[in-house]
Amino acid sequence: MTAHSDETKQLRPGLWETVNERYPGSMITKDDFVPLAPLRKPLSESRLTFVSSAGVQPKGTMPFDVGHPVGDYSFRRVPSTSNPSDLEIHQIKYPTHGAVNDLNVIFPIERWQELAAESVIGGLTPNFFSFIGYNMDSERLERTLAEDIAEAVVADGADVALLAPA
Amino acid sequence: MSLQYLKEAVAVGDTEKLIRYVRLHLGDGNEAAGRKEIDKAWVEALKLLLDVPETDREFILKTLAERDAATLAHLFFHLHFYLVQRSGEWIHDGTL
Q: Quick check: is B96 in a domain?
C-alpha cells in the first residue's frame, strides 16, 4: 500500500510491508485506497454476515484443497443456522486443535446466533462464508474469490460483513 | 512467495527458488522441515513396498495413461500428504 493522507484510517497500516519483509517475493501491493464503509443503520436493525478464512465447511462438502501448492480459490457457504457438529475444518496452516474442541473460538457461529436471538444484532444472513487463506495468486484471490464472496454476501442481503482471518 | 515470483523463476530456470518454495509449502514455512517431510514421504512409500505386496498396477497405468499431467501433479501433492500422515508423524498445525 502506498502512502496516503488517509492511511491512518486503514485498520492495519503497513501490513503489506510486513508481509513482504517476512515472505520475500510476496509482492502484494495495493495502490488503491479503500475507505472503510460506515454502518448505515443501527446494529440492532442490521443483518450480519460472517466471512472467515478458517477453512470451516459443512460436513459432506468437498474438502478445501489444503495440499495444492498454489492454493484453493473456492469458498463454502455455511448455513448460519448450523450446529457446530454439522461443520468441520480443512486447513493445515494454523493450529486447529482448539477449534476442533470448540468451533466458536475460530468461527463463533453460536455467539452470532445468540446475539441475533437477543436482538443485539438485527439478524443473520442465511449463510456465512468460509475459505482457506493459503493462496499464492493474490490477483486471482482478489478477482475471483473475493469478488465471488462479495457477490454472495450482497445476494444474501447482508447489511454488515464481519471479516475474520484465521 | 507470490505466483508471479514462482512464474518468473520458471521463466529463467531458477529451480532453486522453486524447490525452496515446495519445501516451505510442505514444511509450513520452514525449509529444513520441508526437506525432512519430502524424505519422510519417500521413506513411507518405500516401506509400504518392501514386502512386495500385490498392488493395482492396472489402476496405476490406466491413471497415468488417461489423466492429464496437471491432475497427476495435483495427485502427487495429495500423495505426499497421504504418506506423511500415514507415517504417524504429523507436523502440521491443522488437518487435511
A: no
Sign of CA dihedral A41, A42, A44, A48: positive
pLDDT tens digits along A155-165: 999 999 999 98
CB distance from B75 to chain A under 8 Å?
Answer: no
Contact criterion met (CB < 8 Å) for B94 and A27: no
- Cell representation of residue A45: 436493525
Report the domain count for chain B: 1
A140: helix, strand or coil: helix
Q: Is the ipTM of this complex over 0.90?
A: no
- Write out the residue range of the structural domain in which residue B37 sits: 3-86
Q: Which site among B10, B25, B81 would you substitute to test the A interface, given the most A Cβ atoms closer than 10 Å to its Cβ? A: B25
Q: What is the pTM of this model?
A: 0.84
Chain A hits for B25, Cβ within 8 Å: 69
In a domain, B92, yes or no: no
